[in-house]
Amino acid sequence: MINLRLIALLLLVIPGVIATFGIKLMRDALFGVFFPIFFHSTVQFIVGLLFFIAGLAFIAGFILHRDRKRNLTKGRFSKEEES
User: Fold this and answer.
1) Which Pfam families match (predicted)?
2) What does each of the 83 residues of the chain score in pLDDT, given as a tens digit?
3) Domain tally for the chain?
4) Rounded CA gap, 36 and 72, in Å?
5) Could you tell me if residue 7 is inside a domain?
6) Within 10 A of 19 (CB to CB), how many other CB atoms are there?
């Protein structure tokens, strides 16, 4: 059986790697190192920024969901219940 903690770790590692690759793309665009699939440094920087934001947003959403489930947000980020 696969441990659920291992699956949760993989769910956090993959977006972390994507965010790290996004930082690398942005850094390389600033220093003039181009990947052959991008035709301009601005496009490479924007793609890197999107990768970074997507990875960071997934990790932040995962942590927020976990904290809401464990009731650790102290009402600040709790979902509004509809009546």
Assistant:
1) DUF2627
2) 678 888 888 888 999 999 999 999 999 999 999 988 998 999 999 999 999 999 999 999 988 998 888 888 887 777 766 54
3) 1
4) 46
5) no
6) 20
Structure tokens at 31: 């220093």
| pLDDT for residue 11 | 83
pTM comes to 0.81
Written as one letter, the residue type at 30 is L
One-letter amino acid of 54: A
- Give the Cα separation of 83 and 75 in Å (integer): 18
> 34 is in which domain, residue-wise?
13-69
Dihedrals phi, psi of 40, to nearest 5 degrees? -155, 150
CA distance 79 to 56: 21
Instruction: Please report whether residue 59 resides in a domain.
Output: yes
Asked whether residue 1 is assigned to any structural domain, the reply reads: no
